[in-house]
């Protein structure tokens, strides 16, 4: 039986994926050269569709990596000489911070207990931090940081670079890219594609920083460093052979999203999130993990469970649906429900119905 | 019209790919969690099939990255403290060397003119080089280094690590992994898959070196560093979300190859290579670029052309076949013909027939 995946990524494939994949196979996209005009037009198309979808200005380039985790490393190598600052409120923001330490940067952090989020007013940015790393959506804890707070943070620290992890929320957050210097996501979350491609958006200020660091005491990496990516990007190429097929698919999905309209997608995401939170708030077997509504993720809903989560996951599976367990120490006491465009209001409704009978 | 791709990668997809892809879609491989038992069994299966195909002993782990170029960086960060040594005889061996310089290692090199290869007897390894980097098959120039020479090189420098780039030849070269410390390839060459996955084979000596370097003055990278990859590998997991779909497909193709038998694959590759070299040697419009037979690549045949290569490429295309142009400065005066398992004796025969009429 085919399952509907409400997992936070890898997740349910967007309904049009299999059709685009078939077209790609018919057009032999898996065999074309990454130095051909055909590939350049695929990259350009994907770039244009993402630019429209996320309102990305010309100051920013769009690059491809193997995964979003790779982008953590690339940002730290290319945009930080000595000190970075991390808002840590979950396992993935912590990993970004750990990457900085592993790369021998001085990683400052401000930390919140699991399940709590940050408001602008409480953030204290260290004086010498060159980069502020924020996570729009913590996949592990279901906590979001509102774009309004992210924007204020940048405005009050205009000379520092700000990096936004939107791995499990893009294209949901309405980020102002005139303020956001760099952001990144992976395709196996809200874009509903198989895993295997990271997308890195970075502006000219990031490039300038990388160009400066390149001539310093520390290296900026050899593979996928920003100056090399940018140089190739000018002709819609990549330094090494990229995942051509997935870039093709991402362009097609972004086009599908643009046809729906990002405002409609965001409205539907809000609507489905409301349905889910209303349910977990009202049902005696569940309670929302994140207490503060403005910190509640709209794309990954985390609920405490009365019964062991494994029991609930099994029950739901009998009805052809897959929800995720809690993350790390919350594995047995929480479930995580992805709210991505691949699952519509009706499917969320059916999930709620099944959960309600537990 | 569907074309047959004789390009050196991305290349013709292996004939069973579309069927495996369909099965993967039916089984929703694109949606399963990379922390699930199902993923672990996919990784294990792929590992076992590759191990059988390439005769990889238990001392070596098999890891996945975004591309083979990423592996260049990972090897240099994890296995070289100060000095590496590179046998440079084409654009890709040169890039490996350039990566070392970019990572602030002292990169020694011994260089050959484009189109010439190395024999063991002429190689002079610098005393303090920690790693010897050799390219089994230079995709750019169509030059190979014979496994027998690679093995001698390691035997006479047993204390140094040896890294073998087999990007565009695996599983063709019969490497002795009791001698080869680390090797790597990408899936869009002889394995006939779309691009987007690098495969890194490394032994415990590489791990030991990485563990030592980790506590030194330089970092070993944060993403996909060897200790992290190895730790996760013990349970057939990966540190970050990998390209689950392509790992699944690679396992299936490796199984298909094992059913044929690697010896048969290698024999057929030799046979097709002979056909191609015999043709380019005898036809007045062509001549083999690599003069020395023992240095002639069996998987990427490079031929000088009398007419501009673009004319030949266009002509061949009219018959539904794609061959590659020369690399870099040889773009207009050479063609490159991939000889991978995806194209059989009959197809090579047809290509020769068409080329013969030019």
Verbal overview:
- The structure is a homodimer of 358-residue chains.
- Chain A has 358 residues and is an alpha/beta fold.
- The first copy, chain A, has two domains: 4-11 and 262-356, Aspartate Aminotransferase, domain 1 (Alpha-Beta Complex), CATH 3.90.1150; 17-259, Type I PLP-dependent aspartate aminotransferase-like (Major domain) (Aspartate Aminotransferase, domain 2, 3-Layer(aba) Sandwich), CATH 3.40.640.
- Helices cover 39% and strands 18% of the residues of chain A.
- Chain A has eleven helices and 14 strands.
- Chain A has helices at 17-26, 37-54, 68-79, 91-102, 147-155, 204-214, 226-233, 244-260, 262-282, 309-318, 345-356, and strands spanning 4-6, 60-65, 83-88, 106-111, 131-135, 137-138, 143-144, 161-165, 182-186, 198-203, 286-288, 300-305, 321-325, 334-338.
- A seven-stranded mixed sheet of chain A has the order 2-10-9-8-5-3-4.
- In chain A, β6 (137-138) and β7 form a beta hairpin.
- Chain A is globular and about 60 Å long.
- Chain A starts with a strand and ends with a helix.
- The model of chain A has no long low-confidence stretch (mean pLDDT 97).
- At the A-B interface, α1, α3, α4 and α8 of A face α1, α3, α4 and α8 of B.
